[in-house]
Backbone:
């Protein structure tokens, strides 16, 4: 019998601890598929953050080092500069990359650090119990915006990908989502490009992924997928945001 | 090699390069900028080396974390307010047992304080500094030559015990020029440290982390760290005894304060006062046994620090009530001259009746 579906080599044989309907497990899996496809399992070094994905090293079968909250881009910079043959990726949430780690992220991009950032945007702080994130939408109720996020009091959702696109050292920025088979395939393609850019030495690449958090959004997984289409992607439009690699294979 | 005239800051940088440091990450702050500038000149365009002027001290120490986890000898430097920012990273370095060297050319505080030399970071340096139950080795040089020698030692100790090592200098040591001799040539390449993350080639993948959801597991980590700390306390505590053989009064001082005290003690000796000095070279581990030993023949101590009294706690703990300890401190970045210290020595000497 022909085998048509199996666990990627760089994904450990472990049961994900993530909530039902969470985007992390999908993103872990497709990232591992990309690592396999590019044949970089023995060169890859991952930098997971504090937060729900802090245990990413239980799932990725590549070398990994935990970063302090928000410092992933600086840690990845240190690894890549000390060991340029490695393929270094950060795995960061919205609180991590767009709040506490804004400076590290922006300046790593500006230096054109040859690293890959996988940026999971689910509009909340997940692990701490659903507090307001820098990317929380206006009107959205969280435990720390109980009246709904209002610009006058809590500011606007921040669009890190658009900000990073202004920075010369960033060569590739794309926003995708994992709320449908088609979007998951697009996300995987974008992650592939972000890794290939690094392998070819082109500079800083980032894929922002709109990812469902049914638990903290207080929705069913199906409703969460729908909400990304109906609401979240209106604020954070999907698609290619920046590409200076000149490869022309963007979708 | 012949002696050359150098600032303390540049001497640290040169000694670090000669110790095999290939990765340096810094951020400008007075009075340690010559160190960062020296590293920029010598590492930023060199093959196989890394120099980054980071966007903050926090980023710089996290780059050290990354470079160290990848197996490189890595260093950062700053001065007091910047060292406060690095404490988050130092806690992670300690937790992950990553060898690294952090230089603090300290200045007056609290707050932005002053840019003049001070010793007010003794507590921060010797009590861990950041969150969590950990220690760092702390070396306290008192001359430019010793800055160079202890920089090399810092890298060796960091690798030997898998621990962050702090070099606690001050703005005066960093900026003064003295003749210095470098006894070692830079190695062409260092072997990659075992356990470094370089990609899972020919082995299983590894991970380095600090977080665990199981308190019992973290307790094991804490116990194992403290077993190593006990070993360091047993093996690495070092000090200098200066004219303590016959001393009736022993001045305890570290770093630049010890240098000033030495001048005062010379003058006191010329006046016929039997004064000596005990200078810890390692602030952590504090040379408690050596000081306790000394207290068998000397009963009177005068602790002199350029702060409001921080090392004095360790002096008293070491003496376990077995000595009479006076204190003279000058905070704020004020640098007293030896004559001022002599005046205090003379007063204490007479008040305690040591002239009889």
Residues:
């Amino acid at each position: 019998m022909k085998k048509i579906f199996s666990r990627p080599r760089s994904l450990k044989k472990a049961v994900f601890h993530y909530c039902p309907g969470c985007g992390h497990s999908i993103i872990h899996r497709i990232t591992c598929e990309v690592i396999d496809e590019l044949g970089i399992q023995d060169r890859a070094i991952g930098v997971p953050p504090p937060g729900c994905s802090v245990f990413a090293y239980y799932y990725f079968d590549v070398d990994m080092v935990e970063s302090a909250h928000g410092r992933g881009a600086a840690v990845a910079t240190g690894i890549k500069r000390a060991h340029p043959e490695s393929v270094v990726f950060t795995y960061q949430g919205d609180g991590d990359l767009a709040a506490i780690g804004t400076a590290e992220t922006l300046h790593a991009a500006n230096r054109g650090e040859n690293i890959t950032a996988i940026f999971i945007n689910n509009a909340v702080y997940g692990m701490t119990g659903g507090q307001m994130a820098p990317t929380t939408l206006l009107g959205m109720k969280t435990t720390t915006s109980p009246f709904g996020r209002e610009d006058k009091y809590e500011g606007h959702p921040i669009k890190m990908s658009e900000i990073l696109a202004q920075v010369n050292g960033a060569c590739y920025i794309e926003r995708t989502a994992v709320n449908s088979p088609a979007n998951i395939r697009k996300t995987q393609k974008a992650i592939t490009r972000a890794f290939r850019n690094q392998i070819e030495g082109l500079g800083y690449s980032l894929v922002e992924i709109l990812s469902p958090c049914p638990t903290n959004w207080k929705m069913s997984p199906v409703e969460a997928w729908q909400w990304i289409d109906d609401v979240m992607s209106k604020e954070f439009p999907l698609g290619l945001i920046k590409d200076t690699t000149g490869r022309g294979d963007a979708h | 090699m012949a002696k050359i005239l150098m600032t303390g800051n540049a001497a640290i940088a040169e000694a670090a390069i000669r110790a095999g440091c290939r990765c340096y990450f810094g951020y400008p702050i007075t009075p340690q900028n010559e160190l960062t500038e020296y590293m920029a000149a010598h590492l930023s365009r060199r093959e196989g080396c890394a120099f980054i002027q980071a966007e903050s001290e926090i980023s710089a120490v996290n780059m050290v974390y990354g470079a160290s986890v990848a197996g490189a000898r890595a260093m950062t430097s700053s001065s007091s307010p910047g060292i406060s920012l690095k404490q988050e990273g130092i806690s992670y370095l300690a937790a992950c047992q990553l060898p690294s060297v952090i230089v603090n050319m300290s200045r007056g505080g609290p707050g932005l304080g002053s840019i003049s030399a001070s010793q007010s970071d003794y507590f921060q340096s010797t009590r861990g500094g950041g969150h969590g139950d950990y220690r760092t080795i702390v070396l306290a040089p008192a001359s430019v030559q010793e800055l160079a020698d202890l920089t090399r030692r810092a890298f060796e100790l960091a690798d030997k015990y898998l621990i962050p090592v702090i070099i606690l200098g001050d703005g005066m040591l960093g900026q003064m020029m003295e003749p210095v001799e470098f006894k070692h040539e830079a190695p062409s390449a260092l072997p990659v440290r075992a356990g470094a993350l370089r990609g899972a080639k020919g082995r299983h993948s590894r991970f380095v982390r600090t977080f665990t959801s199981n308190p019992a597991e973290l307790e094991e980590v804490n116990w194992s760290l403290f077993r190593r700390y006990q070993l360091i306390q047993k093996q690495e505590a070092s000090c200098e005894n200066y004219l303590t053989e016959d001393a009736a009064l022993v001045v305890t001082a570290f770093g630049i304060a010890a240098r000033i005290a030495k001048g005062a003690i010379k003058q006191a000796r010329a006046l016929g006062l039997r004064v000596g000095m005990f200078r810890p070279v390692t602030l952590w581990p504090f040379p408690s046994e050596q000081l306790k030993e000394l207290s068998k023949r000397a009963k009177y101590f005068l602790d002199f620090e350029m702060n409001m009294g921080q090392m004095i706690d360790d002096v008293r703990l070491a003496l376990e009530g077995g000595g009479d300890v006076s204190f003279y401190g000058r905070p704020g970045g004020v640098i007293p001259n030896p004559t001022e210290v002599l005046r205090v020595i003379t007063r204490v000497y007479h008040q305690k009746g040591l002239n009889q």
Remarks:
- The CA atoms of residues 299 and 323 of chain B lie 5 Å apart.
- Chain B touches chain A through 40 residues (CB under 8 Å).
